Amino acid sequence: MATAIAHPNIALVKYWGKQSGSGNLPATPSVSITVAGLTTTTCVEAAERDSLCINGEFRRDSRVEALLGAMRDRFKVPPLAIETRNDFPTGAGLASSASGFAALVTAIDDEFDLGLAPQERSAWSRRGSASAARSIFGGFATLASQDGTWTGSELLAKDAWPLEVVVAVTDETPKPVSSSEGMERSRTTSPFYDAWCRSTEADFETACRAVAARDFESLAEVAEHSCLKLHALMLSSRPALFYWNPATIAAIETTRRLRDAGTPVFYTIDAGPQVKAVCAPGKGGGVAALLSRSPGVLRVVRGGLGDGARPADDAS
Ligand code: DP6
Q1: What is the DSSP secondary structure assignment for residue 88, as one 8-state letter?
Q2: I need a labelling partner for 162 at 20 to 30 A (CA). Which of 63, 72, 284, 295 fits?
Q3: How does DSSP assign 173-190, residue by residue?
Q4: Residue from 10, 15, 124, 227 whose mutation best tests the ligand 1 pocket (most atoms within 8 A of CB)
């Protein structure tokens, strides 16, 4: 049996939209941070037939089945009993699919000695969920086309710029529309979809430069822009994709007021109602205290930047 752990990642330049064809390739490049405060733990073991147990419940998941099928076309992987647990809400906009697929591929690699390099684990994880390609790496990560090949990479190690993250949880229930379905709806119905794809290339370059220069203000500006543009794209889809609730908007306001008062902090929101506040090193305590009192926030989860997906017995 092998056990692997992985953390979700939060996109600062968002991926939303896929290329046509197989392989689950994104239409746009993305930049993310891997978050230490939230963890997925996945065990795999050879069994008589495949089974998947998520947080104690046996499930079928067509994406897991497709990934296993593709891996078995390449490697000798027997039927598997997979058991996975998240210490945070599943399917609620906290990137559980990212950490889930990154942990699964890492556990399979470890158990069956596939000898995959991180970029190969990233590529396999991407087939399950494109954002999972980034959770293979710690700190700051990208998923982008390099010489025509879509590759996940580490952009900057976590200790090189130890930003902090505070997640304001405003609703623990699973989201009504999955990311895959939502992004396909945006691609086929939003009048803004082409502009989104074009402009995200520039956001990606800006964010990479900001991370390289540890330029918090530039990163904050481009990350909030990418987030709001994503939600404008979602709102302009038909039927509209509306993931926010009143507490989401209040938490945005709280974060903005904090920044206006001088705290280096910005917000970002994915396909769900949780608000993720990213702040400069050492500012997490104050941000968490204020966000936990923001109207409608159920709880806050605080963390630093995390490591990439790894076997559970690894010291790192
Ligand atoms: C809003 O990676 O969950 O979090 O590839 O279809 O599994 P699939 O989508 P997924 O979408 C993530 C969307 C996002 C932005 C991001 O993480 O880049």
Answers
A1: S
A2: 295
A3: SPPSS-HHHHHHHHHHH-
A4: 15
Q: What is the rounded distance in angstroms from the CA atom of residue 42 to the CA atom of residue 111?
A: 12
The 10s digit of each residue's pLDDT in 243-283 is 999 999 999 999 999 999 999 999 999 999 999 999 999 99
pLDDT at 94 over 70: no
User: Using an 8 Å Cβ cutoff, are 34 and 307 in contact?
Assistant: yes
Q: From start to end of 115-272, where are the E strands?
A: 140-146, 149-156, 164-169, 265-268
Q: Look up residue 312 and give its DSSP letter.
A: T
> How many angstroms separate the CA atoms of 76 and 95, rounded?
29
Read off the tokens for 85: 């647990």
- The token pair that represents 310 in the structure block: 């790894």
What is the rounded CA–CA span in Å between residue 273 and residue 176? 11
Closest approach atom of ligand 1 to CA 14: 18
Distance in angstroms (rounded) separating the CA atoms of residues 126 and 294: 35
